[in-house]
Amino acid sequence: MATVNVNLIGLSREDYKGRPSTLCRGCGHNSIANQIIAVAYEMALEPHRVIKVSGIGCSSKSPAYFLGRSHGFNSLHGRMPSIATGATTVNNTLIAIGVSGDGDTGSIGLGQFKHLVRRNIPLVYIVENNGVYGLTKGQFSATADQGQTLKYAGVNELPPIDICLEALAAEASFVARSFAGDPAQVRTLLKAALSHRGTAVLDIISPCVTFNNHETSTKSYPYGKAHEEPLQDIAYIPYAEPIMVDYEPGEVQLVEMFDGSHIQLKKLDPESHDPTDRMAAIQLLEEARANQEFITGLIYVDENRPTFREVSRLIDEPLVSLPEDVLRPSPEALEMVMNRMRCC
Amino acid sequence: MATVNVNLIGLSREDYKGRPSTLCRGCGHNSIANQIIAVAYEMALEPHRVIKVSGIGCSSKSPAYFLGRSHGFNSLHGRMPSIATGATTVNNTLIAIGVSGDGDTGSIGLGQFKHLVRRNIPLVYIVENNGVYGLTKGQFSATADQGQTLKYAGVNELPPIDICLEALAAEASFVARSFAGDPAQVRTLLKAALSHRGTAVLDIISPCVTFNNHETSTKSYPYGKAHEEPLQDIAYIPYAEPIMVDYEPGEVQLVEMFDGSHIQLKKLDPESHDPTDRMAAIQLLEEARANQEFITGLIYVDENRPTFREVSRLIDEPLVSLPEDVLRPSPEALEMVMNRMRCC
Amino acid sequence: MNDGAKSAEQVSPTKEGEPIVNDFQIIVATVNGTGSQTANTVLLRALFRMGIPVNGKNFFPSNIQGLPTWFTIRLSKDGYVARRETSEILVAFNETTVFDDISKLPPGGVCFYPAEWEIKHTRDDISYYPMPVRELVKASSTPARLRDYVANMVYVGSVAAMLDIDLDEIESALNFHFSMKSKPVQMNMEVVRAAYEWALDNLPKTDPYRVERMESEEGLILLDGNSAGALGAVFGGVTLIAWYPITPSTSLIDAAREYLKDLRLDPETGKATYAIIQAEDELAAIGMVIGAGWAGARAMTATSGPGLSLMAEFSGLAYFAEVPAVIWDVQRVGPSTGLPTRTSQGDVLKAYFLGHGDTKHVCLLPSTIAECFEFGWRAFDLAERLQTPVFVLSDLDLGMNLWVSEPFAYPDQPMDRGKVLTAEDLDRLGEFARYKDVDGDGIPYRTLPGTAHPLAAYFARGTGHNEAAIYSERPEDWTANMARLARKFNTARRLVPKPIVDEVEGASAGLIAYGTTHHPIVEARDLLHSQGIEVSYLRLRALPLEDTTRDFIARHERIYVVEANHDGQVASLIRMEYPEYADRIISLAHLDGLPLTANWITTAFLEKEEAR
Amino acid sequence: MNDGAKSAEQVSPTKEGEPIVNDFQIIVATVNGTGSQTANTVLLRALFRMGIPVNGKNFFPSNIQGLPTWFTIRLSKDGYVARRETSEILVAFNETTVFDDISKLPPGGVCFYPAEWEIKHTRDDISYYPMPVRELVKASSTPARLRDYVANMVYVGSVAAMLDIDLDEIESALNFHFSMKSKPVQMNMEVVRAAYEWALDNLPKTDPYRVERMESEEGLILLDGNSAGALGAVFGGVTLIAWYPITPSTSLIDAAREYLKDLRLDPETGKATYAIIQAEDELAAIGMVIGAGWAGARAMTATSGPGLSLMAEFSGLAYFAEVPAVIWDVQRVGPSTGLPTRTSQGDVLKAYFLGHGDTKHVCLLPSTIAECFEFGWRAFDLAERLQTPVFVLSDLDLGMNLWVSEPFAYPDQPMDRGKVLTAEDLDRLGEFARYKDVDGDGIPYRTLPGTAHPLAAYFARGTGHNEAAIYSERPEDWTANMARLARKFNTARRLVPKPIVDEVEGASAGLIAYGTTHHPIVEARDLLHSQGIEVSYLRLRALPLEDTTRDFIARHERIYVVEANHDGQVASLIRMEYPEYADRIISLAHLDGLPLTANWITTAFLEKEEAR
Ligand SMILES: Cc1ncc(C[n+]2csc(CCOP(=O)(O)OP(=O)(O)O)c2C)c(N)n1
Ligand SMILES: Cc1ncc(C[n+]2csc(CCOP(=O)(O)OP(=O)(O)O)c2C)c(N)n1
Ligand code: SF4
Ligand code: SF4
Ligand SMILES: [Mg+2]
Ligand SMILES: [Mg+2]
Q1: What is the pLDDT of residue D15?
Q2: In chain C, what percentage of residues exceed pLDDT 70?
Q3: What angle is formed at CA C321 by the lines to CA D246 and CA C309, rounded to 5 degrees?
Q4: Lowest-confidence range among A278-287, A335-344, C2-11?
């Protein structure tokens, strides 16, 4: 009999898996799902205490592919925050993991995102950020870089929305950025996020292998520029390996994306950045924006900001567990109210 | 025959008025409407070139009370930005004035607001900010100060959304803040905004006289604390005079609101703040936030950012003026397309 | 607001000079924001306390201050509570509408007005009662700043004097209003009394109207429907409320907040056993409700037309993912923003079909404040039993006006939490498929997040799924699931409140109505009866329709569906549902923002009957 | 995707051993993201170029890569284009579904498959044609990285060989596909030819199916409905498009972008005479459309179910403020997110009633790509003439599949910009009231922002208003305005495209259908005819209904309304609208995500007829 490795609560890694992924091979979202599995296993999370909530998109599908023994809710495009707010408010024993996309959060869902952050709802809010709408096939999302070119959508003329800056403006209590191709950092930040008390916003750059039809992307098709265009609009998706990076804090790393474009990642050096300084965090993002860099790491954290449940002064017990005699006042109570309204 | 003063294009001030206001006497929104009338008269705007667009709320009603000879659209709660985007994109000869409230923009309309700003739609976007929902009778809006108490709504436990910071995060090209009780400054900023090329966000603190039922507000009712509570829930609204201030650049001014609470206004000193420096603008707002001050004046401006219409490379002529032979391609054009699709 | 003169509305049969007792209507015309609501409800409550059947209706503008507003108080010894088109007694307290208001008085009517207006007495068929408002107020001890406010007490006192309303009851009503705080009560009573005495001394009574104490209201209560609905929700164990302010639903949430604070704080810690969230908009509000419902809580929202439209996508999700939710729609006049402070029944068809694709919803249709209370708690039982959103369609008239009622009955059954499997159940069963029709009633079993069992988890989604809640595009899975949902909807037919039928032997015509249209129907049937015309009546209390309604229709040759909307929405629904009887359905629909009246219904009915 | 065996579907009558020509269906089973769409459309186009009536349908999953997908090509010498439940010829290119796919072949069917799978030939009633895919591709000059992609060309060549498809037409189709770029054409053709030759040399033909050139398609075009609709919009002078991506409407906007770039750039400056805005969501998209429509532009959006739900509030505003707008709803399966890549007719009732209160909309119902084109431009004429949103309800089957059609007819009338008053008009008239019914047709006059005249301005709003567009809560103003809107809706009845009627003398039963359900109806009527059963047929092309439909119903005893949704939505609408005939309306509704078939319709029809 083969021995199976188990964690503190006796579960194997297998127990944290979900259904087989139907995302493209090489999609950054798959890599993130795997890190969630790894972290949940390592932290020995009780699967039944976890809820997975998402909107609509390739990213939002991925909760089906991890933690199969946890309840999940694949809701509506851009509306995951409200589902999470409702569920966590009535059951504070749940550990909530939200997965969204840049379209889901930055476009249709921007309002709900900001208001959730403002309320400091206890939730790990992961934005699997690829700068495009994956599921609807390659339109620019609101986080796409200004000046970027995609075959499908042409040139993006609008400035990107910075998920981290938006979170900070809404007084987020935890803001971090990472890269799907840096599993170690993703795991570290996930663990920190899961230990955070309120909303933990994790903006994870998560490359889309499929909408890799960059004008300048000759590389993936050695057959040369002449063929490139016609070969693209035919829904043929060459299998791709996920992009992986490994670099040290303080370093800048240039990563080539599937579409041939490049992004600059810069790993925060904990020595030089104080993540409890809000103004410093904003400044960091602003400077990175000017330099077209992506700062990764823990950008801001405030462990003191109370959660929505806390400021709402709710009973400690989860509301869903209250018995009928607490939920329904007595006949005498009704009689008392009626008496006040009585005629004579 | 009495002589009537007229402006450059021969119109009197009267020609810029709207219908009689149905807002409460003393409401800040009325004061702003009056400044719009004054500025339009002084700048000799052609009324037919102006459009007035708004959402829903007391503030959003006010376009009915100015510029009666301009087309107006009182649309849906939180949705003024999309109406403005559609109208200005198809007719670039229009001067668009949008009026919204803090609920309209900061709550339900946050997403549309941010995306309009991001697109740099040519529009003077006025937020008549009173920290409450006026028309629905006194709930906290998303811009209400943390810790503020209202009779109706209790204590506000959530941090406020800062309209100016939100605009800046969305890469606004013009951001200013003012106070409805400072007509001179409102007029100056309105003129600047009307001369701006893209979106000009004007966050104007505009006190609500009616939801003045602050717990600590004994002052307005000399009859004393004992009567105060019962006298409030009876929809009795004492007539109030608008709050007015007059102060110099650089100064800090403490203003008592109708509800007995105070706000601190600080007028920007053009000498010490460079409104073309984005980072400085953000810093300014952040510091003001920490000090619970409201910075007034022109916070940020970038006259170089192109408008949506410009990046979209539209023809110079307004699209609404194009004649049928431009709009409808020829029979030959159809034949050409058909030929491509033909069998044989 | 008084569409009186134009129609031949019933007036109490009385001989010249004989008094008309407890059977007339008062209308108070004021400017909003001047505090007249206190005066009006005090008058109303005093009459109520005298045992006289009353109903008060507030017709207010969609702004905060400075526009005309009207309040009617109907006194009806026979217990009719519907709006009446004619008011005999006018309190003219709004100078901008006074002539129009006077012109609508019927012959023999009465006009109270501030003496200082010095208006011409242009009509010689009515009684004019000028009141020296400014003087009386000035003479009182009220501080200057509050004089405008207490000015309204002048008409309270004058009307009381001329109609014989008991001053003690006025004082009791003031005490109620000011929660027994003596200072404001005294301040107001001083003016009431002064006006009362001045009127008795100076105004010779020339009109026949007066009130008399009755015993009929003993033990009854006076409340608005929104408060009643909120109280129902509280006794239904509501746990999460998420909402966004909108007239006329806001006061439902306000009332819930008050009742919850009163009845549902933990006695030990003083902490809340419920959560109320003011959402950023209606999309978020219903999302929170659905999140909470999925997690196992009783959650609700309240809204009106525009909010309902915004809830379309989420309502479809809750329908299809089968999540319980309670949505109150306190209807106002649409399309669009419409008339935010006027009543209608214009969302019924819309709520029923809310959401794209083949979505259909359970709707409850309360007529009375007692039903607001009952449906307030029952909606949760239904939502959890059926695992679906339940819409409660009230309206502004019911929700924001004051109605007399028997005290509410305590729920007659324990909370029905529906088919929820616990960890122990799962142990016993050894299997779980979220969307399987185990019992043949179309209702599957669910588990709640947090259930400590390896079989408990499932993945809720709005996409096509098989019994195990796994994404599926297989045609068979889709049709099987939709067929089960149809079975479930048929189960809903059996579970929703049945219609109330009052059938007259041999009547060939029947009326169908719902919601507040019930009240003028009661009166209209009596009017018809007095003309020798008998009609049966069925009052719908819920959708989907069930057999009682079909059978009722089958037994009558002509069915008149009376409703306060433009398109005859429920008439349409009935035609859709019972095509075999569609041709006997006649729509009597009318919407102008005011509650329907018995006069309108009888006239419309008789016209159609005659046109046959 | 082949629900064949279970039903007794029509198979071409043929003698044992005789060839079956141009009358069968091919199904290609692949994995999505592998580029098979090129191969499939090349096959389809080659057949089309041979003059054979064809129709291709793509059944694809709602993901991007790695899941099963099917493509059917129906060849019908008789010109039937509806989906057929049975495919005789299977190209099995998906190893995970191969056994299931084979099991659905009818006796005598054919299975092409990659030889390297070495599958067992478990059925002895079909022909198996293994193809050495890997070998053939390896042997070609295709670089290694593109081999997976050209692998699909093996089945193109093999099928061509076994069915006798002209290789020149395959090459032409490839040329079309690759816009005449020779390198990819050569690369693909090399593999096609190799497979073709290998098949001829190695596969003995044991099946009866083959193709033959016909003359019937001469001059016809092949296009998808979304492209056709987009082209229609372009020729309708569309000026602003605001949208948010959603399957299956996205390709309509993509096509519009291409056509506009081609046909509507200013020849001098190269600048656009139109704007396309990718909005942040559907609420914003329709808001932009309404803003542009109010300002005088022809503006449109395209969406599907979830987006339609989100447009509810704004649709009501446009209806009530009377702003022209065109909204394409390319229907997919709902409720909720449902099946995003499957077709349905499930939003008809929902679009018709979209918005709270008494809102009702004009809807166009195209059946063919020619109608997509025509309604594409006509929708703007109607929207501007009627000053109201016009919904065009297409579906995924029509929108995303390739259909053969006559070339589109150029608009037969100049653009109708409706009742717009210019400054000169205002000078002449001397007055203007935005919502006044000057002409008695319910349609008022409007002015556009920017009109240089002191009388031009008005204030558009969703709140109650009088004729002068001023806010009003007066009951009379509300009812007058609603009565005018009802008049306008009646005017709409006269203006929308009339139904197309094919009535059979003496037939007691009639069919009513709309949209793509038309195609199986045509075939079903022939099938019934061949059994001696004659039924009349009316094809709806728009809502609201008008007299043609009523009269048609009146002339038949039984009316079957055939539609691809669960609830029989249009049957319900007809019952509502014509209660006098409601009892003769029989709903034949079915929705499983696949287009309806003639087989399903005839079976369902005959069952109901027999049950009488
Ligand atoms: C209301 C609504 N509008 C549009 C869609 C179509 N839609 C599905 S996913 C998606 C975008 C997803 O983009 P993103 O959130 O970035 O996720 P990704 O696929 O890139 O991971 C859209 C527009 C929808 N499902 N619902
Ligand atoms: C969809 C929708 N939800 C709710 C409302 C009700 N409503 C009208 S105005 C308003 C708030 C207005 O607040 P704000 O924008 O701050 O304007 P103010 O009245 O304070 O000037 C609300 C919630 C509405 N009209 N539409
Ligand atoms: S399309 Fe892009 S985002 Fe979607 S699964 Fe494929 S790689 Fe991932
Ligand atoms: S309620 Fe407040 S915001 Fe509204 S009009 Fe009155 S003062 Fe102004
Ligand atoms: Mg994305
Ligand atoms: Mg406000």
Answers
A1: 57
A2: 97
A3: 60
A4: C2-11
CATH topology of domain C8-210: Pyruvate-ferredoxin Oxidoreductase; domain 3 (3.40.920)
Q: For ligand 2, is residue C244 a contact (CB within 6 Å)?
A: yes
Q: In this predicted model, what pLDDT tens digit does every residue of C201-245 receive, in sequence order?
A: 999 999 999 999 998 767 899 999 999 999 999 999 999 999 999
Query: Does residue B341 lie within any of the structural domains?
Result: no
Cis peptide before C248 (omega within 30 of 0): yes
Interface test with B, best of C45, C62, C65 (most B CBs within 10 A): C65
Please indicate whether residue A32, judged by its CB atom, sits closer than 6 Å to ligand 3: no
Helices (H) and strands (E) in chain A, counts: 12, 13
Q: Is the pLDDT of residue A219 over 60?
A: no
Ligand nearest to the CA of A101: 1
Whether residues D35 and A234 touch (CB distance < 8 A) is answered with yes
- Residues B311, A114: C-beta atoms closer than 8 Å: no
A92, part of any domain: yes
Assigned domain for A325 exists: no
Share of chain A above pLDDT 90, in %: 74
Exposed e or buried b for every residue in A25-49, given b needs 16+ CB within 10 A? bbbbbbbbbbbbbbbbbebebbbbb
Q: Please tell me the distance between residue B101's alpha carbon and the centre of ligand 6 in angstroms.
A: 5
For residue D500, how far is the Cα from the chain centroid? Answer: 18
* Ligand found nearest the CA of B135: 2
> Which residues have CB under 8 Å from D81's CB, separation 6+?
D53, D54, D55, D74, D403, D404, D519
pLDDT band at A225 (very low <50, low <70, confident <90, very high): very low
Better-scored residue on pLDDT, D237 or B137 = D237
> Is D40 in the A-facing interface, judged by CB distances under 8 Å?
no
The amino acid sitting at B277 is D
CB contacts < 8 A, B to D, total 233
What is the assigned CATH class of domain D500-611?
A: alpha beta
Residues 6+ apart with CB under 8 A from B91: B318, B319, B320, B321, D295, D296, D297, D449, D450
pLDDT per position as a tens digit, D515-524: 999 999 999 9
What is the number of domains present in chain A?
1
pTM above 0.95, yes or no: yes
Report CA(A56)–ligand 1 centroid distance (Å): 5
Contact: A82, C279; criterion CB under 8 Å = yes
Q: Measured from the CB, is residue B198 less than 6 Å from ligand 4?
A: no
Q: What is the pLDDT of residue C9?
A: 55
Percent pLDDT > 90 in chain B is 74
Q: What is the mean pLDDT of residues B53-62?
A: 98
Question: Is A76 in Cβ contact with C272 (below 8 Å)?
Answer: no
CB contact under 8 A, B90 and D295: yes
Give the residue-averaged pLDDT of A180-205. 96
Q: Quick check: do C223-405 and C500-611 share a fold?
A: yes
Question: Is the pLDDT at B217 greater than 60, yes or no?
Answer: no
Residue C262: how many other CB atoms lie within 10 Å: 13
Instruction: Please report the pLDDT score of residue C144 as a whole number.
Output: 86
Residues B222 and B241: their CA atoms lie apart, in Å, by 17
Say yes or no: domain D223-405 is CATH 1.20.1530.20: no
Q: Residue ranges of the domains in chain C?
A: 8-210, 223-405, 423-495, 500-611
Instruction: Look up tokens 């091919």; give the residue.
Output: D26
Confidence of residue A238 (pLDDT cuts 50, 70, 90): confident
Nearest-angstrom CA–CA distance, D401 and D58: 7
- Kind and range of the H or E element at A167? helix A163-169
Residue A58 CB–ligand 3 contact under 6 Å: yes
Give the residue numbers spanning the domain of B212.
13-309
The CA distance from C240 to B300, in Å, is: 42
Extract the tokens encoding B185: 């400054």
The distance in angstroms from the start CA to the end CA of chain D is 33
